[in-house]
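User: Modeling request: complex.
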Amino acid sequence: DTEVTQTPKHLVMGMTNKKSLKCEQHMGHRAMYWYKQKAKKPPELMFVYSYEKLSINESVPSRFSPECPNSSLLNLHLHALQPEDSALYLCASSQAQAEIGKLFFGSGTQLSVL
Amino acid sequence: AQSVTQPDIHITVSEGASLELRCNYSYGATPYLFWYVQSPGQGLQLLLKYFSGDTLVQGIKGFEAEFKRSQSSFNLRKPSVHWSDAAEYFCAVGTPNYGGSQGNLIFGKGTKLSVKP
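Assistant: Request completed. Predicted assembly structure:
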């Protein structure tokens, strides 16, 4: 299994809602990543987890809250988002954080904030 | 600081024609270089990467790229394009996680490839 699975594929939420994005991999990877990609832009790194500990937070607003409950799962909890947070949210994993050349990406969650 | 420039925002080629997508990077040391492809609404798929060694790198789907240090370039090529190659292509430079520094990928802005029948 060489897949990174993200759910849901599409999400529409209001600015007062609380929702969560989920990411799962069963490749035994110990590093997991959240990227944000606005339309017609490259992906931008948000968070990195290494061995289930938060390793990098790229100054992301607190309305985005990551969680890594175990080595296979990565969540992104969303609360009080703004319309400008609408984007494709990509999860990725790699064997280790140093293995930047071997990132496996999921298909993403397309998020629309109304 | 490292950066990646993809000069072409959008390229259109005819099916069967050759393709070259340009990528220039800025990085103080020997870079790790990557090409990713993204179909609409999808994640990114790694086409090929360069870490060291042979400067001509072969990838999946018939793609290749050549690292030219003197030109700070890592251009992607394919001798004969197929309609299914239509997608967004991202060049990226990677910084390794050495000595506690944070490894990361820096992406270019992407080149959209359209293929004419």
